[in-house]
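Troubleshooting: if your tokenizer reports a length mismatch, compare your output against this known-good record of 322 residues.
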Amino acid sequence: MEIFSQNKIYDFMGKRKLFLSISLFFIFSSIVLLFTKGLNWGIDFKGGTIVQVKFEKKAPIPKIRGILSKKFDGVVVTKFGDESEVIIKFPVKEKNSVQKDMGDVVSQLLAPLGKFEVRRVDIVGAKVGGELTEKGIKALTFAIIGILIYVAFRFEWSFAVASVLALVHDITISIGFVSLFSVDVNLDVLAALLTILGYSLNDTIVVFDRIREEIIKSKERSLEKLINISVSKTLSRTTLTSLTTFFVVLTLFLFGGEIIKPFSFTLLVGVIVGTYSSIFIASPLLIWLGFKIDDFRKNLAEKEKRRREKEKLREQFEQGVL
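Known-good structure output:
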């Protein structure tokens, strides 16, 4: 199935400055949000206790907040799903605070507000939260370094740097949206960010593979034209793959429940940004990084010459000539 004709070549590179300007705007906005608003760290990283409570009727959030704030500093009460359910977050203040049975404490304090059910109690110590934060940052860093090495080995350094810059672009903008909409940053969000790395890289590698094929089989010397041809030929594949993934993740976001929403929202943004960057950002970066078609073809010719020489020597050895 083809959405776009492979015979039609779109001038993506002619508009690369416009796309770069759009990306720089979102990157700059994301960085500003991170420094001003920051991230809404969940208990996975910050430590603390989460209590999920479901009332028979509409939850009186102001009254809940008023009762709990008298006894606990920094308590946060927010709606969770429908109007009858709330999430109560207790930050870690003391070393022994996570040892308290907060479910029983909440049940006693909120008893005058009507019938309700404590549905979940999650506890994470401050030390564990710090370790998870450190390991999460390491996971993202090692993933990016591994991708850089892999792409450099498969292609060359220009492709590797372009792909990593595109991934940083995707992660930065995705985190910016997480900050903008105050999404709880937990382990699910970290998993979504790592998924975005893999998804975006896959799209980028497909485009880079096509560019390399066009360089090898074509005599065209203009990198801009070759990129336009390559991206145009992969456009139908990229669009179909992205739409399929998008609708699956959108279904998770709309019907998967509140617990999975941080993951599905982050992934939803990542799919959109990753698709955009593989088409409009990763390939133009090759031009800005000074990639030379003639040098690439020369290196390929030298590698092929060495391969043939090794094959010839192997054949002579097997025939007993050497």
